[in-house]
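Researcher: Here's the sequence for the chain we discussed earlier.
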Amino acid sequence: MAKDIGIDLGTANVLVHIKGKGIVVDEPAVVAINTNTNEVLAVGEEAYMMVGRTPGHIKAIRPLQGGVIADFDITEAMVSYFIDKINVKSFLSKPNIIICTPTNVTGIEQKAIIEVAEKAGGKNVFLEEEPKVAAIGAGMDIFQPSGNMVIDIGGGTTDIAVLSMGGIVTSKSIKVAGDSLDSDIKEFVKKEHSLLIGDRTAEKIKVEIGEVFDEKREDTLDIRGRDIVSGLPKTVSISSKQILNATKESMQEIVRAAKAVLEETSPELSADIIDRGVITTGGGALLHGIDQLLVEQLKVPVFTAESPLDSVALGTGILLENIQKLNNA
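Model: Thanks. This is the structure I predict for it:
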């Protein structure tokens, strides 16, 4: 019997859910290639370990940038790798595959993603929009005639949507998300301390001591990088308060986008959102102080999904249980 598969094709991570088994793959969306031969050397975790640590001709690439497929051939290689990894070919019959894509993927890209999944052994391939699936995975019943709002802060994009009757009523997708905050932190450290740090160090700072709402945290972290002036390695200490200030403008952009979606929502659905609250999903839902910031700015209750990083993958699992609905759609 074929085991149906759900794939969360994220900018930062790729998750694969197999019906009846749960999430079986959760790896970084990174591919390492040899630029001389265009040969794929590593994918996922192995490729991520190479970021910033490879010789000139080996490049670690994230094929999805800002929620958009930046390099289609490499995305194809990555999707094929993950589907091969779970060994679809060994299933007795071909599985159905649901792939979640960012809201702003073009028609041409959609067609190409479907082709990749079919080539890798899929029978019926369905594409679903990320915020819709994230809302389902976060436990919202979006098939009722009532308003649900989700703010999905991923690596490359923040997708904000109001859903009702199984569809998206109003939505907005902006290219300000986890990666933007990492860039803000790198820029701040460069300006303030004349120190160059890599993406992984910036992400570590964000995760360990970052905050987006002033809770008077006193946390600090010693980080190492390269001094711009001397060119030598140097260590400096960074505080939570500094990260709060460094990321303020990006966080305000996310707030503005959420306000814009609420302003476009009908009074009836707005009333539902005040009752039910907003759910945050994605890696950004784990930012320290994110709920307090949104409550203060949006004036509605805000809750974090139980497993924010897995919401989309879990949502594909629920949709796979109801595959008939998709077949009839």
